[in-house]
Sequence to fold (155 residues):
Amino acid sequence: MTSALRTESEGQTAAAARRLAERLPPSAVVLLTGDLGAGKTAFVRGLAAGLGIDPDEVSSPTFTLIQEYVGARVLRHVDLYRLQGAEIDDLGLDELTQDGSVVAIEWAERLRAAPPGAIQVTIVDLGGDVRELRIEQGAQRAADSGSRGPLAATG
Ligand code: ADP
Ligand code: MG
Fold:
């Protein structure tokens, strides 16, 4: 199931993410794709809010590869922007959801395969403050991922 909407401010993007987060099951994986400045981190702030976490805790993971935010629920935030194949495999992303945490991954196109059931969010900058958000729910793409697990790198 795919839904698409346009937002005209960072706040509207965060609100859309917040609505999504409020119905995310335990161990949900949200894969974020979009150019630099599209609004991926803004979306993660909204996810945090919807999970009962202070959105001000969310920043772009720079030195810490995986950030963990704790509120009513736990959100783990990964940014693959600076990482390549083996470095991504070494993060152990498959383990991040095992305690029921929600995981949000920026630059998810760097993964070799989407985990089954992951929610794919694509953000396109349409100019100015206008963004198109395409949210694909739980595409049950069979993870043809060999022995390295579905959250392994593309190359
Ligand atoms: P990314 O993580 O994709 O690189 P960020 O979320 O860090 O992007 O930054 C998005 C930037 O775009 C912010 O400066 C934000 O204020 C701005 N912006 C303008 N309009 C929107 C919108 N509709 N949705 C999200 N961000 C927007
Ligand atoms: Mg970002």
User: Anything to note?
Assistant: The longest helix spans residues 10-22. The pocket of magnesium ion (ligand 2) is lined by residues 40-41, 60, 79, 106 (CB under 6 Å). The radius of gyration is 14 Å.
